[in-house]
Write a structure and sequence with these properties.
The complex is a heterodimer of chains A (297) and B (180). With 297 residues, chain A is an alpha+beta fold. Helix content of chain A is 35%, strand content 25%. In chain A, the strands form 4 sheets. Chain A has a 5-stranded antiparallel beta sheet with strand order 4-5-10-6-7. A 4-stranded antiparallel beta sheet of chain A has the order 11-12-13-14, with helices on both faces. Chain A has a 3-stranded parallel beta sheet with strand order 1-3-2, with helices on one face. In chain A, α5 runs antiparallel to α8. The longest helix of chain A is centred in the last third of the chain and has 31 residues. Chain B is α+β, with helices and mostly antiparallel strands and 180 residues long. Chain B contains 7 helices and 5 strands; from the N terminus they run ββαβββαααααα. A 5-stranded mixed beta sheet of chain B has the order 2-1-5-3-4, covered by helices on one side. Chain B is globular. In chain B, 46% of the residues are buried. The chains are: A alpha+beta (297), B alpha+beta (180). Chains A and B meet through α2 and α6 of A and β4 and α4 of B.
């Protein structure tokens, strides 16, 4: 047995989980899919005194559309989302990204909330949440608050969650369907391994093919997923051409803060990021154009 | 802690004195003596400890034993046919030399079994994708992929015929297996 000793409780609802967190205090941890927490405990990087297992909490799994928002409850499995028709139809960017999230054995346990709460800088789900302006809802025994994901993720394995809070759901605003395009790009050592760099783009084109709305972000080029706001601003009201893209990509370097590791130097990460962002913008733009042409027919 | 209701390979178990920190992997190996499931990295990287959990493949090192209460587990021991005969996948692994040291094999078999249950006629791409979470340091993966594809072709046939058919596919005359 590799982890340090701990006590174990099963919570069958969000309310029970919050009550247990407030009763136990400081070093209790929520156990969702366990695909990040359990390895960290095996390496004794994490030594909680109590684990509160939310795998039986029925009100923490599943997803639904609520007006202009998709609400995904926190303990919904990544594989379930990958197989969900609702996600394929309304959040195709997340569907594409999930193919890169771990392997089938880890996706079968891993949850959307667990991934965001752990905030690994290379994580695909956090990247998609940031590029979608998603927000998280955090419950405690008394009260609930909603925080935009890009404010919630503070750094590597650091988020703005209080010790007595439990993430209940992640909310993605729906983008318009007409003129919409998305793209997800990633480079990793093996398929589905940790990303060396990943990039995600969403775009909405007007009837004249000019950019009405664009969101671009990269993962693993800094401590958190990074929104490339200067490049987004450069594209507003422009038509995406390879030439314009080449110029806009000159703006990427000051936005990135990559690190060296065994798999890639910081310099290589910068080069990959520039390449993947370019590819993602072109692909998202091509999809958006197809969507407009389909409408015309 | 107690585990009241725990089904492994079709057998019902109830266990007591389980420490919460004991992984399902350790529970299977040390308490139930089902040592076919292998302990590799024990932190979710290698895939050697894969088992089916309610029919889906998971890493048994990343789930606590106590979390398996109320669930159904199938380990590599559960893949053999009646009277201990090998299943189609296992036969194919033998015939295609899909193992050398054999350490990763239980995980490879479970991952392949999970694939074939969901998708009885996978493409090569599907097989590679399904096995991407399992590390092998001997074979270079090629023969494993071949074995799974061969098993796919003959999975529906009865085990004895299946073994012969796989051998024939592999270029051996069918008679050699009966004579030998």
């Amino acid at each position: 047995m590799k982890p340090a000793q701990f006590d174990y409780e099963r919570a069958t609802s969000l309310a029970e989980a919050c009550a247990a967190l407030s009763r136990v205090g400081g070093d209790a941890r929520i156990l969702a899919g366990g695909q990040t927490l359990v390895p960290m405990m095996a390496m004794r990087l994490s030594r909680p005194s109590v684990l509160i297992d939310i795998n039986d909490a029925v009100d923490l799994t599943g997803l639904e559309i609520d007006g202009e928002t998709i609400v995904i409850r926190s303990a919904t499995r990544q594989q379930q989302l990958l197989e969900s028709e609702l996600i394929a139809k309304h959040l195709p960017l997340l569907a594409d990204a999930l193919k890169f999230v771990g392997h089938v054995q880890t996706r079968n346990r891993g949850t959307i909330g667990g991934s965001i709460v752990h905030s690994d800088p290379s994580a695909e789900i956090g990247l998609v949440a940031v590029v979608s302006d998603a927000s998280v809802r955090l419950h405690r025994n008394v009260g609930v608050r909603t925080v935009p994901v890009d404010e919630f993720i503070l750094g590597p394995m650091q988020t703005d969650i209080a010790p007595d809070e439990c993430l209940s759901d992640v909310r993605f605003g729906l983008w318009p369907k007409d003129g919409y395009g998305h793209a997800f790009e990633e480079v990793s050592i093996r398929r589905s391994d940790f990303a060396i760099v990943a990039a995600a783009t969403q775009i909405v084109l007007g009837p004249d093919f000019r950019v009405c709305r664009i969101a671009i972000a990269v993962a693993n080029c800094g401590p958190t997923p990074i929104r490339l706001r200067t490049i987004e601003a450069a594209f507003e009201n422009e038509t995406v051409t390879e030439r314009f893209l080449h110029e806009a990509l000159q703006l990427i370097d000051p936005e990135l803060d990559p690190y060296d590791d065994i798999h890639a130097s910081a310099t290589l990460r910068r080069r990959i990021a520039r390449h993947l962002v370019g590819r993602a913008i072109l692909q998202a733009n091509a999809r958006a154009r197809r969507s407009l042409k389909k409408r015309e027919q | 802690m107690k585990i009241q209701n725990f089904n492994v390979n079709g057998r019902q178990f109830s266990l007591s004195d389980i420490e919460p920190r004991m992984s399902l992997l350790d529970l299977l190996r040390d308490r139930l003596r089902l040592t076919g499931t292998h302990a590799g990295c024990e932190h979710g990287v290698c895939g050697a400890c894969s088992v089916l959990f309610d029919g889906r493949p998971i890493r048994s090192c990343l789930i606590l034993g106590v979390q398996a209460d109320g669930h159904e587990i199938i380990t590599v021991e559960g893949l053999v046919g009646r009277a201990g005969s090998l299943g189609a996948l296992q036969e194919a692994f033998c015939d295609f030399h899909a193992l050398q040291c054999g350490y990763c094999t239980p995980g490879m078999l479970i991952a392949s079994e999970a694939l074939l249950r969901r998708n009885p006629s996978p493409t090569r791409e599907d097989v590679v994708d399904a096995l991407s979470g399992n590390l092998c340091r001997c074979t270079g993966y090629g023969q494993i992929v071949e074995a799974v594809l061969a098993a796919t072709r003959h999975r529906t046939e009865p085990t004895t015929k299946c073994a012969a058919a796989i051998r024939q596919d592999h270029g051996e005359p069918e008679s050699s297996s009966t004579k030998g």
